[in-house]
Design brief:
Layout: H1 2-17, H2 19-23, E1 83-110, H3 122-125, E2 136-167, E3 173-183, E4 186-196, E5 206-208, E6 213-223, H4 224-229, H5 233-241
Function: Assembles around the rod to form the L-ring and probably protects the motor/basal body from shearing forces during rotation.
Subunit structure: The basal body constitutes a major portion of the flagellar organelle and consists of four rings (L,P,S, and M) mounted on a central rod.
Subcellular location: Cell outer membrane; Bacterial flagellum basal body
Length: about 240
């Protein structure tokens, strides 16, 4: 029974750790929603030196509005429902290498030559006899040698039109957009979302993806080709529940 319990224990651990993955069996990886960063318990306000406040410039008898890009009106997105083009240009390259070597050798010993006068009773408790000065002796040795390496090179260049979904009290814009392209039986799906400043929108009503705060960019697809590249549901199930 003890051996069966020892064999079943890793299986129970694997089942518990894979419960969350099992609930997502067959689903695409979920992206985190755009949330308020200050709701994080680890968030702390930042205090920085600030310039002295200045009065806004007077614009009496002038048809030109401060911050406007055109003579009549600003063509950039500024209100809910306006459209802005997000330029996605990701060139990600990372190369990491690390190695860890650790070793430890322990030796412990304990004896009780005298203990409240009970040493005379050792012979009755242990007929074969013991040495009170060497009651406990333990030795242990452990070692770890690990090597890891990561090499990644990704390039993504896209353009997607997003809609202003919300105007925050400080004037920043919450944008979200989705684009789908279907070729034969393969569907490509691009989603983008985040928070931008109106000042970061260029005169041609475009904004770079690295100007998006809380950016969420996903580029994937589904269809006949994606189905062939993805493992079957049975294989994913075995990867979750098997401990080895």
């Amino acid at each position: 029974m003890h051996r069966l319990a020892l064999l079943a224990f890793p299986l129970l651990l694997a089942a518990c750790s894979g419960a969350e993955r099992l609930s997502r069996l067959g689903d695409e990886p979920q992206m985190a929603g755009v949330t308020n960063p200050t709701s994080d318990p680890r968030w702390r306000p930042v205090s920085m030196p600030m310039p002295n406040p200045q009065d806004p410039p007077l614009a009496n008898n002038s048809l030109w509005r401060p911050g406007s890009r055109t003579f009549l009106r600003d063509q950039r997105a500024a209100a809910v429902g306006d459209i802005v083009t997000v330029l996605v240009s990701i060139q990600d390259e990372a190369e990491l290498e690390n190695r860890t070597i650790r070793s430890r050798d322990n030796s412990e010993g304990m004896g009780l030559p005298r203990l409240l006068g009970l040493e005379s009773s050792y012979a009755r408790l242990f007929p074969s006899g013991i040495d009170p000065s060497q009651l406990v002796q333990a030795n242990s040795t452990s070692g770890v040698n690990g090597t890891g390496a990561i090499r990644r090179n990704e390039t993504v260049t896209l353009r997607v039109a997003a809609t202003v979904a919300q105007v925050l009290p400080n004037g920043n814009l919450v944008v979200t957009g989705r684009q789908q392209v279907r070729v034969n039986s393969e569907l490509r799906d691009l989603t983008v979302g985040g928070v931008i400043r109106p000042q970061d929108i260029a005169s041609d009503n475009t904004v770079r993806h690295d100007r998006l705060a809380e950016a969420r960019i996903a580029y994937g697809g589904r269809g006949t080709i994606s189905d062939v590249q993805r493992p079957r549901v049975g294989q994913e199930l075995l990867d979750i529940i098997l401990p080895f």
